[in-house]
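Customer escalation, tier 2.

The customer says the design service returned an amino acid string that "doesn't look like it belongs to this structure." They asked us to rerun it and document both sides in this ticket. The original structure tokens are below, unchanged.
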């Protein structure tokens, strides 16, 4: 049953990530073609609840998606099982979420 829940969580996170990836790419193309500097970009994102929510959801979805994907790789290639595999999955997910959340905070509210 755990495998089915992880499978569904990874698929759901992919569904969430897909439009966010497209939005992120569109914003990056707009910023590059518009010749925006880092200061101008930060001026638009600082204090923005929208960008905080957009990239916060992005970070959460990526953290879940990547942790589950790396779990499968660690199981198949490294042979991790049981508690070691669970600890690896949680550490990976929480580590990615922490790094991403710090980045989101830095560009929106720091």
């Amino acid at each position: 049953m755990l495998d089915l829940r992880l499978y569904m969580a990874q698929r759901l996170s992919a569904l969430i990530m897909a439009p966010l990836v497209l939005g992120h790419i569109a914003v990056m193309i707009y910023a590059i073609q518009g010749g925006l500097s880092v200061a101008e970009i930060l001026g638009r994102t600082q204090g923005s609840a929208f960008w905080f929510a957009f990239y916060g959801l992005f970070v959460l979805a990526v953290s879940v998606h990547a942790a589950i994907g790396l779990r499968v790789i660690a199981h198949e290639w490294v042979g991790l099982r049981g508690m070691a595999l669970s600890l690896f999955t949680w550490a990976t997910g929480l580590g990615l979420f922490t790094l991403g959340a710090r980045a989101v905070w830095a560009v929106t509210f720091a």
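Tier 2 assessment: The sequence is consistent with the input. The domain at 2-108 is CATH 1.20.1300 (3 helical TM bundles of succinate and fumarate reductases). The chain has a mean pLDDT of 95. Sent an explanation to the customer and offered a walkthrough call.
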